Structures are given as C-alpha cells and as structure tokens.
Amino acid sequence: MLLQVEGVTKKFGGLTALDQVYLQVAEGEIVGVIGPNGAGKSTLLNVIAGVYHPTSGSVRFGGEKISSLSPDRICQGGIARTFQIPRPFARMSALENVLVAASFGLHKTGAGGRLSQSAARQAALEAMDFAAFPLPGDTPAASLNTAQLRRLDLARALASRPRLLLLDESAAGLTPNELAELQELIFKIRAGGTTVLIVEHLMRLIMQLCDRILVLQYGVKIAEGVPAEIAADEKVATAYLGEKYLISAS
Ligand SMILES: Nc1ncnc2c1ncn2[C@@H]1O[C@H](COP(=O)(O)OP(=O)(O)OP(=O)(O)O)[C@@H](O)[C@H]1O
Ligand SMILES: [Mg+2]
User: What is the widest separation between alpha-carbon atoms in the chain?
Assistant: First the structure.
C-alpha cells in the first residue's frame, strides 16, 4: 500500500474533526473523499500532508510512518497537495511560484534535496506545460482568475514530482469545459505514475474519476466502495447526497 491512514483521530479543542478514520490507497489508484461541509475532508488531507499531526492514530507512506514529520519533509518524501483556496505568492510571477516548489520535493537525484537552478526551472516549465497553464510564465500571479489559479496550484504541486497528489476541491468554480479538461488532466497525472487522492463536492466528476470513494460525515467514515456502491448506499443518500445527486451521477 502506498498510503495507509490508520485510525486517525484529529481533535480541535472539543471538536472531533476526524474520528478513527482508516484509509488505504494503492499505487496508481484515484481515490475520492466526499462528505458534507465540515465533514473533515480537508482535515484528512492536512493530516496526510503533515499540516496537522493526528491526535491519535498514524499515517504511513510507502510503509514509513510520516505522521510526526513536518510538511516540508512529507513533500520531499513525495506527497504534494493543492489547496481548497489557492494562495500563490501574489508578488511573484506564475513561473516563480512554480519554481519555488520545483526546488524542493522528490527528485530523481535520489537525495530528495534541492535541484540546481536550471534543473528546477526545467521542472517548473514541464509542470506548467503538463498542467496546461494557459499564460506566459511571467504573468503576475496576482492577476490570475479562478481557473488559471487552480492550474497554477496544480502545476506547483506537480513540480515537486509527487508519488501521491492530494487535490482539495480543484474543480470548485470551474466551467463545464474546464471541468472536462480537469478530468482529462487527472487521468493524465495518474497515467504518468502519480497516485491521486481527491476531495470533491461534484458528484458527477468524482463518480467518473475515482476507482474508490470514501464518505465522511462529522469526521466518521460512513461508507467506502467503488462509485456504484456509493451511489447505491442508503446511508450515504440519507446522510448527504440526496436523490438528485444520485440521479445526476448515473
Ligand atoms: N484549524 C482548525 N481549528 C479549529 N477547527 C477546525 C480547524 N480546521 C478545521 N476545523 C473544523 O473541523 C471540522 C472539519 O473541517 P474541514 O475543513 O476538514 O471540513 P471539510 O469536509 O473540508 O469541509 P468543506 O466541505 O466545507 O471544505 C469543521 O467543523 C471545521 O470547523
Ligand atoms: Mg474542505
């Protein structure tokens, strides 16, 4: 297993954002995490990325326990993520933003250390190309619209050449065309050898993309299965989805 989330509980004061959550992701899978607002989806990604340490339980990546490491170390170890609300360095250009990420992360140097400037630039340009960032690299980050920001955030995440990519609502605010492109892109990312764990509200997208889906409600895993199982799960329907979502997903 590439990723093993083992009984992770995360408390914020008196609030239990994640309650004994178990999840396994195999290399090459696209796994979705759904659930209503406040269910703990972003918290789960944040725990995996090392932003929060679990209150109890642990996270293993490639068999190694990572849940006490810093976000930097985890990124260097091969996990990258996008943000529900991308916040680039606004004073930098698009390319400079990606360069920052390309200088770190997992690289074929083997050491997982910094790349040389020219190699980092090459990696950044490749990531922007792969993510189909639609503007010149010197475009100021502050001038980007939602879809462009999400592309930049994705390029930034890919620039560290992750083995596992965590996507937090990358589809939010996109048009139907942009959604179709995003779906293509995620399949392309997987084809390139990167495993994907995606948090998403859009049922249609998640049902089409994912090999497996995990459903959270109030921090508790209430269902897990292939898309057809989740679509047919009554617990999920009553807890969250509602009939119209199930119909639109089929
Ligand atoms: N840093 C924090 N401090 C205190 N409470 C937090 C913190 N982060 C998240 N929470 C709380 O934990 C719960 C889960 O939040 P989380 O952001 O993981 O939900 P989510 O499933 O991603 O929701 P959404 O669909 O709205 O993005 C919420 O009740 C939230 O208010
Ligand atoms: Mg969230």
Answer: 54
